[in-house]
Design goal:
mainly alpha, four-stranded antiparallel β-sheet, 33 helices, 75% helix, 5% strand
């Protein structure tokens, strides 16, 4: 009972002290973990001093209590790691992560292996410990805490992709490092055989098994949430159950990496949570997890620092030398990744090049944090290891973490000053001057108008607002080149575009899932503008209205296997995304004419207007391609969007009436229930028919109109329905001819030497290569969504043999096209 009471008192006091340090951390502009570690060391040293000596009149009992505070090593893993990893995953934009997933996984896994090898080899050469223990320590210090670097990148306005890269790498290298740590610990304890291939197989089993378990558990959690009726407390509780249950059953019952499972579960929740939960519920859920992370981080750092104080009081000069070797090895391993691996990935176009100054920030700001501390505490309390090995690992791991906190973290700001990253660039300085001048001018005009309306003495008002006069020339001048003005304008538009998409969720006029896709696309657009200016903006705009990888995969499944459901979903998504994008672009055009023109000048506004006009035209053409092929669906979806907007306006009117006390809260609640019922009625999308029913498509081809019904049925079995999307190359010049195509809906363009030829409903193409038994002589592109019937080469020969009339018509058309091509 005494130990329980001591534990409660210790935890309560430590959390209270951690809370007091938060405002101090903000005021000193140092990471909270630095102050936690400093306080923990102070408490640990005080406990050691109180244990070894007694000063008259000084109450030492509380300090001795802290000195006697014990914790179970394995309990720390189960208590703290799920909270830390789950919260880290919630903060990652999963769609942006998939943009960088190849680089993230390579950096995470390869970086952990490099750190394990470099640090382990360096320590193995200079220490008396076994190589396995040294490699174990190398895996422990391979985990990185990106908090400091991410905060710096956000302050600097660095490309968002760098933040995603650092966060994703940290999450997955935690998982990879702990998986390697667990395997090495099992080998050292004798529960696993010493074999490279067995180690690789165990790592893949743990890692991939954890991925599968985490995803399945997260989807099961969302299935359970659907039955909770939107109860916030229950939804948050389910995610806590998910994190701890996934970790425990992964480690104990499925023999896979519980760490990887928790990481994947958190990413799955991050992907589906904002879509399945209301914005308010999602925000509260994330806040609860941040509270759990704060408690876990605080306790880990302070407990580990207290342990470090005890260990460091017993450390020798040899330990300090080994710590120096560890620090040099870890920094060298990180440098190999940043300056050796990243340029290689950039050369392979897996990532965009990273500025050398940002690499320096990532290198020096690669703090080791809570995960390394937890592993150090676990090793320190592991009775299966010799005392010398526990001392070696615990002292060096905690010492390295303290070095990154007290040296790297505290010198990161001076490093920024040295690299010139703490100062506004010429563009930002000029823009700041312009914004200040405009804002002061506007404020002065509004104050003078207020003074006139209030009958205040004009001389008195003028004296107050005359300080720091703003001249017309100051407002007109902006010391930027035209290219710099244009880039500033594009960044403003791209940032505003993302905000407009988010507003659609708040207004409940668009699907949260599709808005999340658009918001991620806007983030990519911002990054492209930062690195590529106008050219980057054009590329980002093209990507936004282009056909996604998911669309192309669904299209391939339909063409290869006849599976249409995924393609129907993607076409419907595409139409709604284009519709939302079109409305946002029109709003941006107003922003450009109203605000950016005043800020950046008439010429810049005109150039931006041209870029926006081109995007509006491209979106309009993309929408028209769907509307021409599926007019009823397009009309239904537009009507649905208008109804949603009307419901939002109606809801806003109810809120105003409630605020003016024109209706009672009871009436307002009843009106809200009616709105919710009507929203549910229109939330379901109208059905989309792809129009790929074979019998109907065959009847649309005039050439087949005179075929007997029996021949029609036999011929129909030879044909395969196919949907071509706008811009798709259906036939490539020079390829071997393997099929001909009949158009049953839409248009295609044949690019011949004599110029493009347009074919439409009832026409056919691709027959010339089959007749001549030669290569294709022209490229053929779909102009819009196009319905085609494909006839394979073998069936083509059978068709010509069985139906002379069709053979004559096809050969005559081929001869005519050949003569036109020669002419």
């Amino acid at each position: 009972m005494e130990q329980v009471a001591l534990t409660i008192v210790a935890v309560a006091v430590l959390l209270g002290l951690a809370s007091v340090l938060v405002p101090l951390s903000n005021r000193m502009r140092v990471p909270h973990a630095v102050l936690l570690a400093a306080l923990g060391i102070a408490l640990g040293l005080a406990a050691v001093i109180a244990r070894d000596s007694h000063f008259p009149g000084v109450p030492s009992a509380p300090l001795l209590d802290f000195g006697r505070f014990q914790f179970d090593a394995e309990a720390l893993l189960y208590l703290f790691l799920p909270a830390l990893l789950f919260t880290a995953g919630l903060g990652i934009d999963i769609r942006r992560l998939f943009d960088e997933i190849a680089a993230v996984l390579m950096l995470a896994i390869v970086a952990v292996l490099i750190c394990t090898a470099v640090v382990g080899s360096a320590l193995g050469l200079v220490s008396r410990e076994s190589w396995l223990i040294c490699f174990l320590l190398g895996a422990m210090v391979a985990t990185t805490d990106p908090a400091a670097v991410v905060a710096v990148f956000r302050d600097l306005g660095a490309p968002r992709r760098l933040t995603i890269l650092v966060q994703g790498e940290s999450l997955f290298n935690d998982a990879a490092a702990i998986a390697i740590f667990t395997i090495l610990l099992d080998v050292i304890s004798g529960s696993r055989a010493v074999s490279v291939w067995d180690g690789i197989r165990a790592f893949l089993h743990d890692f991939l098994g954890g991925v599968a378990l985490g995803y399945v558990m997260a989807r099961a959690a969302f299935w359970l949430m659907r039955s909770l009726g939107g109860a916030l407390i229950a939804e948050v509780t389910i995610t806590i159950v998910l994190a701890y249950l996934t970790f425990t059953i992964g480690e104990r019952y499925f023999d896979v990496s519980g760490i990887v499972a928790v990481a994947v579960a958190s990413l799955t929740v991050a992907a589906y949570g904002p879509i399945r939960l209301s914005p308010r519920h999602w925000k509260m859920l994330v806040e609860v997890w941040h509270h759990l992370e704060f408690w876990a981080n605080s306790l880990i750092f302070m407990l580990a620092a207290m342990l470090a104080a005890r260990l460091l009081s017993e450390a020798s000069l040899d330990d300090m030398v080994l710590l120096a070797v560890l620090i040099v090895g870890a920094i060298a391993a990180r440098a190999i990744v940043l300056y050796g691996l990243l340029p290689g990935l950039a050369a392979l176009r897996l990532i965009q090049p990273v500025d050398s100054r940002y690499k320096a920030v990532i290198l020096w700001g690669g703090l080791r944090g809570a995960v390394t501390m937890v592993l150090a505490l676990a090793i320190g309390g592991n009775a299966h290891l010799p005392a010398e090995s526990r001392h070696f690992v615990a002292v060096l791991a905690t010492g390295f973490v303290l070095f990154t906190l007290f040296v790297s973290a505290t010198t990161l700001r001076p490093l920024l000053r040295l690299l010139g990253l703490d100062r506004l660039g010429p563009v930002e300085l000029a823009l700041r001057k312009r914004v200040m001048a405009l804002s002061r001018s506007t404020a002065r005009a509004e104050v003078e108008a207020f003074a006139r309306d209030s009958n205040l003495d004009p001389k008195f008002v003028h004296a107050l607002v005359a300080a720091g006069p703003v001249h017309d020339g100051e407002i007109e001048s902006l010391d930027l080149t035209p290219a710099e003005r244009l880039q500033v304008g594009l960044l403003t538009l791209a940032t505003r575009e993302k905000a407009l998409y988010v507003d659609r969720v708040v207004e409940r006029t668009a699907s949260k899932r599709l808005v999340a896709i658009l918001a991620a696309a806007a983030d990519r657009l911002i990054d492209r503008v930062k690195t590529g200016g106008v050219a980057g903006y054009d590329l980002g705009a093209q990507d936004l209205i282009g056909f996604s990888r998911a669309f192309r995969a669904a299209h391939w499944l339909q063409r290869r296997f006849g599976w249409s459901n995924a393609l129907v979903q993607n076409i419907a998504d595409r139409f709604e995304i284009l519709l939302i994008n079109q409305l946002a672009l029109r709003e941006l055009d107003k922003v450009n004419r109203k605000s950016i023109r005043v800020l950046l000048g008439e010429d810049t506004s005109a150039a931006l207007g041209g870029l926006l006009a081109a995007r509006i035209d491209a979106v309009r053409d993309a929408l028209r391609a769907i509307e021409l092929q599926y007019p009823r669906y397009a009309e239904s979806l537009r009507s649905q969007y208008i109804i949603r907007a009307a419901l939002r306006l109606e809801e806003a009117d109810y809120e105003r009436k409630l605020g003016d006390a024109l209706i009672s809260p009871e009436v307002y609640a009843d009106l809200q229930r009616d709105l919710a019922q009507r929203r549910r009625a229109i939330d379901k999308r109208p059905p989309l028919d792809l129009g790929l029913r074979l019998a109907e498509m065959v009847r649309r081809v005039p050439m087949f109109a005179d075929l007997p019904s029996g021949a029609m049925a036999a011929f129909g079995r030879m044909l395969r329905p196919r949907l071509a999307f706008p811009g798709e190359r259906i036939i490539r010049k020079g390829d071997r001819g393997d099929a001909m195509f009949f158009i049953t809906g839409g248009d295609v363009e044949v690019q011949t030497q004599g110029g493009p030829i347009r074919l439409s409903d009832g026409d056919f193409f691709g027959e010339m290569a089959l007749l001549a038994r030669g290569p294709r002589n022209a490229d053929v592109f779909a102009i819009g969504f196009c319905h085609l019937l494909a006839l394979d080469a073998a069936d083509f020969d059978r068709l010509l043999g069985d139906h002379p009339r069709l053979r004559t018509a096809i050969e005559a058309a081929a001869r005519q096209r050949a003569s036109e091509s020669l002419a």
